[in-house]
Design a protein that fits this description.
Layout (H helix, E strand, L loop, with lengths): L1 H10 L11 H20 L6 H12 L7 H8 L3 H13 L3 E5 L7 E5 L1 H25 L1 H15 L15 H12 L1
Antiparallel strand pairs: 1-2
Length: 181
């Protein structure tokens, strides 16, 4: 118990001097730090953490190959960003686009034999990075943080299309335009 308390106090230290008030900025700073850790760990395999995550998601689907749109949705990415990440994997022969089983007009994304081999090669590297996060953050805290981050990632109330995020100056500007007419 004493070790847990000491770890928790160490984790909660705020002597970094960063006074950022913006949640998006704080998340982006943390994301850059963690992404760098995973990218560095996966570098010997020639993959980025985003590429590894895509391969993991495709593998998780088994024989039910996701369409590009389904994969983009699962990864909370837009299709153009997904395409940018998939192109090197396709070029290197790790993924392929195949005619979708249920709808011939769509293409599914599958891991090739060499893609599955690369994923197996990269997994211990990814596990090392994952363990490093656990060592720094704590096992229970990492699990709790992951649950919260995934809840945020999949909460549609936080998309740009949400009416609650409209710029407050727009209604005022619209009223001014109407009075000039």
């Amino acid at each position: 118990m004493r070790d847990y308390i000491l770890h928790r106090e160490k984790l909660m230290k705020v002597d970094h001097g960063d006074l950022t008030q913006c949640s998006a900025t704080a998340l982006r700073k943390a994301m850059r730090r963690v992404t760098q850790l995973y990218d560095d760990a996966l570098r010997p395999a020639g993959l980025t953490v985003t590429q590894y995550a895509l391969m993991t998601e495709i593998l998780r689907r088994g024989s039910n190959a996701p369409t590009v749109t389904e994969l983009a949705d699962a990864m909370v990415m837009d299709r153009s960003g997904l395409g940018h990440t998939l192109r090197p994997l396709e070029r290197d022969g790790y993924v392929a686009l195949v005619q979708h089983k249920e709808d011939g007009r769509q293409r599914g994304v599958v891991l090739t034999k060499s893609g599955r081999a690369m994923h197996r090669k990269a997994t211990p590297l990814w596990q090392n990075a994952q363990q490093r996060v656990v060592e720094v953050v704590g096992r229970d805290e990492r699990a709790e943080l992951q649950m919260k981050l995934l809840a945020i990632a999949h909460d549609d109330r936080l998309t740009n299309s949400a009416n609650s995020l409209r710029h407050p100056a727009r209604p005022q500007a619209a009223r001014k335009a109407q009075t000039r007419s």
